[in-house]
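A further point concerns the way the authors explain their paired sequence and structure data. An entry of this sort, consisting of the sequence and the corresponding C-alpha cells, reads as follows:
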Amino acid sequence: MSKLYIVPTPIGNLEDMTFRAIRILKEVDLILAEDTRTSGKLLKHFEIGTHMYSHHMHNEHKTVENLISRLKAGENIALISDAGTPAISDPGFLLTRACVENGVEVECLPGATAFVPALVNSGLPNDKFIFEGFLPDKKGKQTRYLALAEETRTMILYVSPHKLLKTLAEFITYFGEDRPICVCRELSKLHEENVRGTVREVLTHFEKIAPRGEIVVVVGGKSITKEPKKSKFSPEE
C-alpha cells in the first residue's frame, strides 16, 4: 500500500537529520518540498537523488487532489518543509487531512522541531503548555492577547526577528513587565542564544542587541506571576 511520509528536517544543524529520514527520502517516488532550492541543498548534502515537487502554502490547495490520485495509484510520497516538522506552522495539514479522508496511510517520522528544545531550554514549567505558533498580524490579535493574558500554562510562540521588539512591548501591555519569558534564538546553530528574564529585562536586552535569526519565545503562564518577583535574567550564548 502506498503511503505519505511526513519527514522532519534539521532546523539548523545538519547532524540532526536521522538515518531513517535519509532512507525514506531515498526510497520514496517523490518528495514534496516547501522550497525546492532550500531542500535541494539538504538532499545534495545527503546524496539523495529523489525527484522533488514544489508544495507550499500558495499552491497546496490546488495540488492536493492530484497528489491523492498519485498516492492511490501506488506512489509513495514524502513531505518535507524548509526546516523542522511539516504542518507545524508549515504546509502539511491539508494533505494529511486529505489522506486520512481518502484512506491513504500517513506516517510521521519523529525528528527536529523548534518549539520542544525552546520549551525545555526556557526553564519555565513544561508539564503543561500550549503552542500558539505565529500570532495574527492584525485581525484577531487583540482578542488573542486578551485570552492569552489569562492563560495559566506556559505559552510558546514563533516570532520573526523584525517583529520581536514590538511583540515584547505588546507582552508588557497584556502580560505585565514582570512576566517571566525566554527568547530562544538560532536553536541548534552556531550562535544559539537563550535570553531569560522578565519581559522588561529581555526587551531591554534586545533594544541594545538587534535580534537576528529564527526565534521562539516561551512565556510563563499567569500563575507564575504570583510567585516572588525575583529576576534571574540570563543572556546565554
About this structure: Helices lie at 19-27, 36-45, 60-72, 93-101, 115-122, 141-148, 164-175, 199-208.
